[in-house]
Write a structure and sequence with these properties.
The complex is a heterodimer. Chain A has helices spanning about 35-40, 60-70, 85-100, 110-120, 130-135, 145-150, 150-155, 170, 185-190, 200-215, 225-240, 250-255, 260-270, 285-295, 315-320, 335-340, 340-345, 360-365, 405-415, and strands at about 20-25, 25-30, 50, 55, 75-80, 100-105, 135-140, 175-180, 195, 240-245, 275, 300-305, 305-310, 325-330, 350-355, 370, 380-385, 390-395. By secondary structure, chain A is of the alpha/beta class. In chain A, the strands form four sheets. Chain A has a nine-stranded mixed β-sheet with strand order 4-3-16-15-14-5-6-12-13. Chain A has a five-stranded parallel β-sheet with strand order 9-8-7-10-11. A two-stranded antiparallel ribbon of chain A has the order 1-2. In chain A, a hairpin with a 2-residue loop joins strand 3 and strand 4. Chain B has seven helices and four strands. Chain B folds into two domains: about 5-60, Orthogonal Bundle (3-methyladenine DNA Glycosylase II, Chain A, domain 3), CATH 1.10.15; about 70-150, 2-Layer Sandwich (Alpha-Beta Plaits), CATH 3.30.70. By secondary structure, chain B is α+β, with helices and mostly antiparallel strands. In chain B, helix 1 packs across helix 2 (about 25-30). Classes of the chains: A alpha/beta, B alpha+beta. The interface of A and B includes residues 5, 19, 29, 38 and 132 of A.
Chain lengths: ~425, ~150
Amino acid sequence: MENDYYVCTGCALLCDDIGVELEGGKLNKVHTACRKGFAFMKGCTNPMECAVNGERTDIDSAIKEAASILRNAERPLIFGHANSSSGAQKKAIDIARKTNGFIDDTSSFCQGPMVEAIMEGKLKTCTLDDVRHKADVIIYWGADPANSHPRHMSRYSYFPRGKERQRGWEEDRTAITIDVRKSDTAEICGQNGFYQIPVKGDAEFMDAMVSALSGKIPKTSYDLDKKKLLELASILKKAKFGVIFAGLGMVYALDDREPLYKLMDKLNSVSNFHLIPMAGHYNMRGFNENLFEETGYINRVKFSGEEVLHGPEYSVVEALRQKAVDAALVIGADPLSSLPRSVVRYLEEIPLIVIDPCHTLTSVKANVTIPCGLVGVETGGSAVRMDGIEIEVKQIVDTDRLSDEEIMTRISEAL
Amino acid sequence: MASVMEIYQLLPKTNCKECGKSTCMAFAVDLLSRKVKVGDCPPLVREDKYKANYEKLSGMFTPVDNVTETGLIVHADKCIGCGNCVVACPVNVAADPMGAGSGKAPTCDRIILKVEDGIVKAMNVQECRRFGENKILCVACIDTCPTKAIEFV
């Protein structure tokens, strides 16, 4: 059996136990990776070519053109980063600093608020290995790992046996789903482990849980089985090591994080609870940590000389809506697919550079496209898992494409 | 999965014996355990009035390959390779507690389920708890599957 393991960069779980069989310098078989990871590792069906204004060119002139676009811009936007290695992210921050640009990543409209609260120490967190070895109560809140992170439940959170949870899911663990619909994850948790709430009902549910945990009768404006909620409170109270996986459903439903802080405080006064954000792309958390180290903010930053500006007006959505930027470099993201058309339409009006292994909707509209190697398959690097653990990513196959880090370094040097 | 009565209701119910079975009910039982195919009932294929029923039954019994001796079928189109069954399977846990049983890559060859190219593959089926003299109706892999991609026939 294969003992040389590789890391899958299909999602933020960064599973590091992937076995591969090569044939003729290409991936032939992939062991242990889920369907999502396997599809990601197989590479793109439609690789991007190196082009300037739609005409094929060599990599040197594309990099030169990209650098000249950035040099001539007064306020460029450097966006993406969630699907690029940590090395490339650091170079991107460098480029933004040199060009007085805006820098933002996908966490700005994704898990940013949760990661921010964790980095500022406002929420208690733990690692996924702690979850595997210790967790006995696991709550998936507004998250559906069965679809978004297929190996989440089998590798870390629910099914595996751990040091302090030798009997695994059958006896030692309780899984609970709180969601607006009966997702595939909820199916696994069963009828007793599923709490259905209305859309935007999360904050009220949190308040009701705080009441239930204090021994009061929980109240909500929507119909909710009070008895079931009190049962949930008693499960949570008995937990020795609880963990909440906060999905996008929770992030989008909360207008501010106060109800969550209150709930976490209450949970930690009666038992022991942690929170892990369900980051989607494999290195979103990495960008947050890298930028936090450099500037003290996790996203939505604008460099202005020595000064670092931060605020919602510097987010990618606002910068594009206000037409505050005059050029854009997109690396490891596809804003044209993930953001509303009304916001991203402006990207077509300004010079656009895209660095990605595959053709995306964004690259179709780009002035300069620079293909890079697929991190985790064609190139190595490092990335940060959803719980904040740094993972070294190894190269599996050889390629003639440059890594995203090399491309960013060369653009930075050309500036 | 449909019950034997549901299948029976869709058959001609004439007990014509053309299929070689003594009754339509016997055919329904064999169909459920996939010993015969839907097309093995001649009147169902031949006569127009059964056309709707024939199509319905064909939809229920999509052709499957690789049915193992224990009757385990993995529907490759539904499987997402999450590995829940690999970790939950009691035989896997006994054979490989530190690998497959702990959610990591398998470290031995005696396991019966593993993920390959993003889809679960069955091997060493003779080790399955549903096989052999002391077989029991273990459902660990079915219960834990989020997409209902595993089925026993």
